[in-house]
Amino acid sequence: MTEKYFLKFIDHFIKHVKPSTEEPVLFLLNNHSSHVNIYVVEKAKENNIFMLSFPPHCFHNLQPLLYYVEVYGPFKNYLNRAQTA
Hints:
Elements: H1 3-17, E1 25-29, H2 38-46, E2 49-53, H3 59-62, H4 65-84
Parallel strand pairs: 1-2
């Protein structure tokens, strides 16, 4: 992930999640260098997205387990099957 593509992802995220002042969004990050970008932070702030970055080297200990099991686990399985097919 690069800063350029992460900024595009934030645009995509805003388009589909539609955060608002009435319903702000908490966005959890893993402290990757592409996330530390003034344009991303400003865009998130303007669009009612609160960004919370985990400290380095402890994301695996602090990430919400349910989210990983319910979203990333099935997604990784699907992606692996699609790439090997």
